[in-house]
Amino acid sequence: MKLSIKNTILFLILIFGSNPIFAQQFTFDIVVSDNLGNSTTLTIGMNPAGTAGYDSGLDIKQPPPPPAPAFDARLIITGDELQTDIRLISTDETIYRMDFIHDPSASNMTLSWNMSKADSLGAMEVQTLAGATLQDMTTNASYTFNTTTPILTISMTVTEDITLPVSLMNFSASGSADGVQLLWSTASEIQNLGFEIYRSAQQNDGFRLIGSYENNPDLRGAGTTNVQNDYAFTDPSATSGETYWYRLADVDFSGVRTLHAPISVIAGENSGGIPQKFALAQNFPNPFNPGTTIRFELPEAANVNLSVFNLLGEKVAEVLSRNLPAGTHQTTWDAGYLPGGVYFYQLQTPKFTATRKMILLK
């Protein structure tokens, strides 16, 4: 009886600095084939709504593998096997794992791709686990290897030292009697023309434009700056009691649009009563990688500082620092630039201080 043989390939995406292309969602197809004529296409990519797990509406699951002997290839994440694996846009390394099964009659397998697209995304190479280069994916459109070849690594490296158009520090939403208030801060901006606000009743689709820098002066960007800028937008059309998802986009001078991860809020949830006391909720998800949401309550308007500390007590991030109205607030924080481990986030106001633990997995 012939038995199919299973091997593994890791797709490692390394980004040094960050190229504006990675501020946009993208997909990249890799065709896996053998010398017997079998083939399948796997898709990797990045999207502002992507995660390291299964994302409904973005990822595509694989059916159970065929019985041996058979040809098969699939992307592997914790708990699932995928045909399409879309991750959150990140300026840190992102690893995609692929398992494949080949028939014993097959002597070799081939990986092929769109060479021009690879070149537009960065410096992509096929490497061994030890880091030795086997193939430059920007000058060749395929790589063939013997089926007895040990595990390989495909490394996509962006070498241009270009920063993101906008470095977003935080993006928060709170419900009030007036609708929904959105607040965000930038640590720096490069050729930022302005912002757009999108709203939906669902997390992953149905978003429509409700505010733009083109007709709202408050949404105009600061151009190029390395100092913090704070922005605000109120959505008065939100129906009280309904849950909404909001997405922020920044647009640069060339018209390139960068979409950020969505956040949710219940419109008007504070119109029936202000919180009775200060409170800091546990972040969610927790553990997380790389983004998480932090929610807190204010019984009165206050100057709020929300910061993150490592185990040595060193401040590694200032998530929020501004005056906020009474109500329930939530903000998102992207820890993609930090190493995995235990961190503490602390909420401080003139009358209240609270600290909670969270775990960043990498």
Q: What is the topological layout?
A:
Blueprint: E1 5-15, E2 26-34, E3 39-47, E4 60-61, E5 72-77, E6 80-88, E7 94-102, E8 108-112, H1 115-121, E9 123-128, E10 133-136, E11 142-146, E12 152-158, E13 166-176, E14 179-200, E15 208-212, E16 220-225, E17 229-235, E18 243-252, E19 257-259, E20 263-266, E21 279-280, E22 291-298, E23 302-309, E24 315-324, E25 327-334, E26 341-349, E27 352-360
Description of the structure:
With 362 residues, this protein is mainly beta. Helix content is 2%, strand content 56%. Strands 1, 2, 3, 4, 5, 6, 7, 8, 9, 10, 11 and 12 form a twelve-stranded mixed beta sheet that branches. Strands 13, 14, 15, 16, 17, 18, 19, 20, 21, 22 and 25 form an eleven-stranded antiparallel beta sheet that branches. The longest helix has 7 residues. It is elongated, with a radius of gyration of 23 Å. It has three domains: 154 residues, no CATH class; 111 residues, Immunoglobulins (Immunoglobulin-like); 89 residues, Immunoglobulin-like, CATH 2.60.40.1930.
Strands, total number: 27
Class by helix and strand content?
Answer: mainly beta
Order of helical and strand elements: EEEEEEEEHEEEEEEEEEEEEEEEEEEE
User: What is the CA-CA span between the terminal residues?
Assistant: 41 Å
Task: Give the strand content.
Answer: over 45%
Low-confidence stretches: 1-5, 11-23, 156-162
Number of domains: 3
The chain-level mean pLDDT equals 81
CA-based gyration radius? 23 Å
